[in-house]
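Researcher: I'd like a structural prediction for the single chain below. Treat it as a standalone chain; there are no partners to consider.
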Amino acid sequence: MADVLIFSAHPDDAEFGMGGTLLKLAKGHKVVNVILTHGEAGTYGTPEVREQEAKRAAMLAKAEMEFLDFMDNHVEDTAENAKKLALVIRKYRPRVIFAPYHTNNFSHKDGAAHPDHTALGSLARKAARFAKFKNADIAGEAHTADKLVYYMVPKYRKPSFVVDVSEVVDALRNLWQCHESQLQMRHGKLVDYLLVQRRATGLFNGVEHAEAFIMEEPLKVSADDIFRI
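Model: Treating it as a single chain, here is the predicted structure.
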């Protein structure tokens, strides 16, 4: 059982994509990060190194984690793969599911536009649907998550909401350092890049640092909530 289930294609996706929100959620909720691959096709780090880095990050964030057996660069949007993720959803029975956004039209140089990320976003949407069907050919008891939320929002998309992560920026830096092998990306300035992303998102939303998310269904609020959103 988990309150929050995060799907990641690679060992660093959750931390680099929504690490501040992960830290905040894990303070009061059970968070599980399910990682499809070991990042074995990446330029930096071995699968063994990356697994250990992911374990350190999970320990620091006070979250749980699990690896699946997908192959890096070969995460494909198929019904069979969606059923594998539906099994995970039925296992953890989360209230909220996070996954990378399923559509990103940026170039091959944009890490968020990795085909594994977009395929995983589509798979998560299918899996969330499959998991709720009582008579689906999937083991376990049917489960309907309350919300499916996408991270790794493309720069050209307006987010549905943002999370203020200003208060956890120092902890977020430490979390990123757990993935030491990957900090060589962007000519060794990956941390600066990730911070700039969050500063920009925060600037446009009245806070110092923020992370952006997309939902495909309307947020339901009470009349009083209007004064808080």
